[in-house]
Specification:
Strand content: under 5%
Number of domains: 3
Largest sheet: none
Helix content: over 70%
Order of helices and strands: HHHHHHHHHHHHHHHH
CATH class of the largest domain: Mainly Alpha
CATH superfamily of the largest domain: Tetratricopeptide repeat domain
CATH architecture of the largest domain: Alpha Horseshoe
Number of strands: 0
Length: 323
């Protein structure tokens, strides 16, 4: 089973070492595959901008369907979606992949990526249509891991659109599917999304449980799981009145994300911190945290999230504390 038995940084160093060895012995395809894996690991550690550049350099070496070509495109695609590339620029790049080879695995994945990006803009109809198309194609290919991933993204789309009950159902389905196939590394990240929805449903015990799962089933440098798990647990502690512990944990989460270039995910953690601060009676600090989140969302081009945080700032600054 994939449990990130080694730290991602260690795996990255091993991939680079392997690439150098394979290059020396003349195994060009093997070296490039190791380089593609190294690019993906850079992304997973929160260095998506650098990962995009590395993967792009491999993509430019030529078209084809060898494993290293597929993996380099996959690494570039996920880095474009989750990294610092603005939404419209990332959509244009991914659409070019679809136009080039619509039936390829990476083009199917590109539709999945565009679905997430359109959801960040509040374009939910297009997001759902793109996601449906991607899921159907992966089902036809029998790719269970990718089908589970798309179902999780479907849940995130529903969560953003305010359909929390359906979001919980879909993300739990995705989580169960990932654990069933033994992919605990991605399941830990899905656990963050599920905990987030449970917070909005005020199912705090379940939110706490999945925050714990995210932290305990991922490596210490799996930034999305470690930061997300802490942020969820901080919110639960805040609701229980343990404000000092909640703030300490929320600030740990923010410090982890501050080391990455995951713009909208960093913004999400700042919003969680803001809620914790407001519950503790620190409204000015809370508003400042939301403003930081808004700036990150603006940089990504996540217009729906910008509008949501702007409403939050308005509500918090126009309503007396405690109301």
């Amino acid at each position: 089973m994939s449990t990130w038995s080694t730290e991602q940084a260690e795996s990255f160093r091993e991939a680079e070492r392997l690439a150098a060895i394979l290059d020396r012995v003349g195994d060009e395809a093997g070296a490039r595959l190791a380089q593609a894996w190294a690019a993906f690991l850079l992304f997973a550690m929160g260095r998506a901008g650098e990962a995009t550049k590395r993967a792009q350099a491999l993509v430019e070496l030529g078209e084809g369907n060898e494993m290293w070509q597929r993996e380099s495109r996959m690494a570039r695609g996920v880095s474009l979606v989750f990294g610092p590339t603005p939404v419209e620029e990332a959509v244009a790049d991914l659409q070019s992949e679809i136009d080039r080879a619509a039936s390829s695995n990476w083009a199917i994945g590109a539709n999945h990526g565009i679905a997430r990006l359109r959801a960040l803009q509040g374009r939910f109809a297009e997001a759902r249509e793109r996601s449906d198309r991607s899921r159907a194609a992966f089902e036809e290919l029998g790719n269970r891991q990718q089908v589970a991933s798309v179902i999780g993204s479907d849940g995130e789309i529903e969560h953003l659109s305010g359909n929390d009950a359906e979001a919980a159902r879909l993300i739990r389905k995705s989580y169960d599917a990932m654990t069933a196939i033994g992919d605990l590394s991605f399941a830990s990240t899905i656990a963050v999304g599920l905990g987030d929805v449970y917070l909005d449903l005020h199912r705090d015990d379940e939110a706490w449980r999945f925050g714990t799962i995210a932290r305990e089933t991922s490596s210490s440098d799996d930034v999305l799981s470690q930061a997300g798990g802490r942020a969820i647990q901080a919110r639960v502690l805040s609701r229980r009145g343990d404000h000092d512990a909640a703030e300490a944990l929320a600030r740990e989460a923010e410090a982890i994300m501050a080391q990455t270039d995951y713009l909208d995910q960093h913004g999400d953690v700042l919003v969680h911190l803001a809620h914790v601060l407001r519950e503790a009676g620190k409204r000015d600090d809370a508003v400042a945290a939301v403003r930081e989140a808004t700036a990150l969302y603006e940089q990504k081009g996540a217009t729906f999230l910008v509008e949501r945080t702007q409403r939050l700032i308005h509500d918090w600054t126009s309503t007396p504390l405690g109301d």
